[in-house]
Amino acid sequence: MAKIDDVVLRQKEGARFVITAPMLGLNEQQFDLLASGWVEDGGPGFEVAGVPHRTCIDGEFFINRITVVKSTAE
């Protein structure tokens, strides 16, 4: 299981990349809670770009993948 900081630090300034639930060792429900905050306020060292991808589980939609851009200022 990777930490979000590890994923972000591997990226170059201004890089556009994807963060997924499995990358962080989370299920869709856990990732949805985390990613919802990032969509609203930005994440640690990145901003969300575009519309988050959602998956449907038992009739409920959860964010399972987001595309982000690494911030130029840390």
How many β-strand runs? 4
Terminal Cα span:
23 Å
| Low-confidence runs | none
The number of helical runs is: 2
Explain how this protein is built:
- This protein has 74 residues and is α+β, with helices and mostly antiparallel strands.
- The longest helix has 14 residues.
- It starts with a helix and ends with a strand.
- Strands 1, 2, 3 and 4 form a four-stranded antiparallel β-sheet that branches.
- It contains two helices and four strands.
- It is 27% helix and 32% strand.
- A hairpin with a 2-residue loop joins β3 and β4.
- The radius of gyration is 12 Å and the shape is globular.
Which key phrases capture this entry?
globular; 4 strands; 32% strand; four-stranded antiparallel beta sheet; 74 residues; alpha+beta
Quick synopsis:
With 74 residues, the protein is an alpha+beta fold. The chain has 2 helices and 4 strands; from the N terminus they run H-E-H-E-E-E.
